[in-house]
Every structure is written in C-alpha cells, then in structure tokens.
Amino acid sequence: MSSSNNKIPVAVLAATGTVGQRFVSLLADHPWFEVVAVTASERSAGQRYADAVSWVVPGEIPTSVADLVVRPTDSDPGDASLVFSALPGDVAREVEPALAAGGYAVCSNASALRMEPDVPLLVPEINPDHIHLIKAQREKRGWSGSIITAPNCAVTGFIFPMKALHAAFGIEKVHVVTMQAISGAGYPGVPSFDILDNVIPFIGGEEDKLESEPRKLLGTMVDGGIEPADMVVSPQVHRVPVMDGHVAALSIKLARKVSIDDVNRALEQFAAPEGVADLPGTPERPLILRKESNRPQPRRDRDAGNGMSISVGRVQPCTVFDVKLVSLVHNTLRGAAGGAIQNAEWLVASGYLGEKPFER
Ligand SMILES: NC(=O)c1ccc[n+]([C@@H]2O[C@H](COP(=O)([O-])OP(=O)(O)OC[C@H]3O[C@@H](n4cnc5c(N)ncnc54)[C@H](OP(=O)(O)O)[C@@H]3O)[C@@H](O)[C@H]2O)c1
C-alpha cells in the first residue's frame, strides 16, 4: 500500500536515538518515502514522539512525525512496507529477521547482521551488485522481505578512496588510524569528563569491524555469494572531542608501483555507477579530492554534498607502504541514516521492495 501522496510508507526503529533522529529529519522531505510509524524502547513507547525524544540534530522536529505515538519495537510497524533500523546491535539481531520474515524490507545501520554471508553490506557507489544477495537470502531463509545493512560509519568514509585505488591498481595492505567523533557513540554518549581535553584510544568492537567490513565491501559476487577481497586492513581507532565527522589516516600498499599523479587521477575520476548516480541520496560528487595542505577537516568539510560526500586529502608518498591519504565522513549522515536511506533507494530501484505493500 502506498501512502496518500503515493510515497512508500516507512517506519523508523529506534527513532529517538542519534541515528533515529537523523532518519526522521532526512525523511521529512524525501521524494519517495514517508514516515508513518516510529518505535523506540519501552522507556519511550506510548508517548508522543516530540515528548519522548531529546532532539539533538539541527532544525525542528518535522511536524508530520512530532505527533506520532512511539510504538514498542516488538510490535508490528503499522502500515509501513520499508523499515529503517537504528536499533542497538543486540536488539537488531532479534527484531530485524522477524520483520524480514513478515515481508518487510529492512534497511539497517546496526552491526549485528552485516557479516552474515547472505546479507548485503552495501554502499551503492561501492558495490551496487551486492544488492542481488537478496535473492540467496530469500531463498535460504524463506523470507518475502529482506535485510540490507550499511557499514560501520568509519568504514563508510575510507572505503571510497580504497575502492578508487583498488579498482585502479589493486590494494594489498592498509594501515588505518581513525579519529572518531562523539556522536558516533550515540546520545548521551561518552561522558564529558572522559572526552573533553582528551583522546581515547579505544572504541569497543570497532577494530574488528574495520578489519573485516572493507574486505566484504570490496569483495566479488561469485555463485550468489561474496568472495572477500584479498587484502589485509590493520586499524587503530580513537574517540576524539569532535561532534560529527570521522577522520581516517590511511597508509596503503598497492599491488603495483604507480606515481602520486596516477593516485590523484584515480581519486578524481571516482564516480557513482550508472543508475546509482540518479538516486535522490547520491551526491553530485561522492568523493571530493581536496588539494589544500590542511584539509579535510570535520568542521569545514563534513557537510559537503549534504553530508553525503566523502572528502579526501593529504595524498602523498608513504615511506613504509606506497601512498598515504586522509579521508573524512559525516558519521551520522553518510555514515548512518543518509547511507541507509540511499541503500533503500537502491533496493527500490533494483526491484527488491518486499511483498508487504501489496499485502496490506
Ligand atoms: N551514531 C553513529 O554515528 C552510528 C553510525 C553507524 C551506525 N550506528 C548504529 O546505529 C544504532 C543506533 O545508534 P545511535 O548512535 O543512534 O544510539 P543512541 O543515540 O544511543 O540511540 C539508541 C536508540 O535505541 C533505542 N533502544 C534502546 N534499547 C532498545 C530496546 N531494547 N528496544 C528498542 N529500542 C531500543 C533507544 O530508544 P529510547 O530513546 O527509548 O531509549 C534509542 O532510540 C546502533 O546499532 C549503532 O551501532 C551508529
């Protein structure tokens, strides 16, 4: 069923959190989707959305959502056919498969199911063909709905320069050091006593994700599954006192020797594949190469392309590997809600919306 204005009715799970609020904000004027239901924990269920939420993202709460009554997350998400999930990982592991089995198309930011062999880990500019894993997923699990996932927010940033260089020259090894914003820890997040005037060289579970997710994202579809890219990634992660915007400094060993001009050209030529470029959420320039010696910076560059462009700079020779560079991603826009919305657009454009809209 479509909504009164012919938009696809969608629900936002965990709509009161940092990422959930970004979903609500971005979906307010979306040309294809309309929010008809919001869920959260028992703490918020039963309240008006505007009363339940501590609104921390820019702008006002959209009037179309402010008066919705927050549902408990284990209930049916109403007339929605597509569901955006900003659930904590442990809750997502239970709730998302149940929804997919019930015919809903689930587009998730949670980490729980990202590495399941039949679940697409998707960035439309990077691996659009991985959407077809949904066929194997439905066959194996007997679902009429589906689950697709967006990567870890830090990975979403540095996968863009990795993709450009892997496609052009091949990548063998990457050492990556991240400086991650506090909004990446959710709300209220890291206590101010711990993060002000400080850098914390630990984020629970993060380094495992940075090691494994790039290999799946850059992997190849073979016989209906993903063969991970043959490379190693060694990450070190840090929480830093920045509000939004994850910075990653990479040293990369390429499969062959090339000049820095070649590297710059490969980065400059990065473009969204056919079809993906036309999605509402795809920025005009998915990867922006900055030539200034002091960019990218979170405060100056995170909002490029409405927060959906990845900024890359400091491209230089590396004396340990071959090339060094720095990338920046807006972690709650491209790295979370914006990325999952673009994934949903690609799912719809690829014809994989579940059966739910036709059943209801
Ligand atoms: N922040 C980022 O940059 C980022 C980026 C990529 C992915 N992610 C992922 O996105 C998800 C949400 O992160 P966040 O930063 O938005 O966290 P957050 O600000 O802490 O928000 C947590 C949300 O989960 C809800 N929730 C908590 N327990 C629940 C339960 N048992 N059942 C249903 N809902 C429950 C909360 O509802 P109440 O308000 O009712 O408690 C709230 O809406 C996580 O899986 C995270 O790993 C985050």
Can you tell me about this structure?
The protein has 2 domains: 8-151 and 337-359, NAD(P)-binding Rossmann-like Domain (Rossmann fold); 153-330, Dihydrodipicolinate Reductase, domain 2 (2-Layer Sandwich), CATH 3.30.360.10. Helices cover 30% and strands 21% of the residues. It has helices spanning 18-27, 49-52, 63-66, 89-101, 133-141, 153-169, 192-195, 206-217, 260-268, 298-301, 333-349, 356-359, and strands spanning 8-13, 33-40, 71-72, 82-85, 105-108, 146-149, 171-179, 220-222, 225-227, 232-236, 246-254, 287-289, 310-317, 323-329. It has a 6-stranded parallel beta sheet, sandwiched between helices. Helix 10 (298-301) links the parallel strand 12 (287-289) and strand 13. The longest helix is centred in the middle third of the chain and has 17 residues, at 153-169. It is globular. The model has no long low-confidence stretch (mean pLDDT 95). It binds NADP nicotinamide-adenine-dinucleotide phosphate. The site of NADP nicotinamide-adenine-dinucleotide phosphate has 28 residues, from helix 1, helix 4 and helix 11.
Structural topology:
Elements: E1 8-13, H1 18-27, E2 33-40, H2 49-52, H3 63-66, E3 71-72, E4 82-85, H4 89-101, E5 105-108, H5 133-141, E6 146-149, H6 153-169, E7 171-179, H7 192-195, H8 206-217, E8 220-222, E9 225-227, E10 232-236, E11 246-254, H9 260-268, E12 287-289, H10 298-301, E13 310-317, E14 323-329, H11 333-349, H12 356-359
The chain binds NADP nicotinamide-adenine-dinucleotide phosphate.
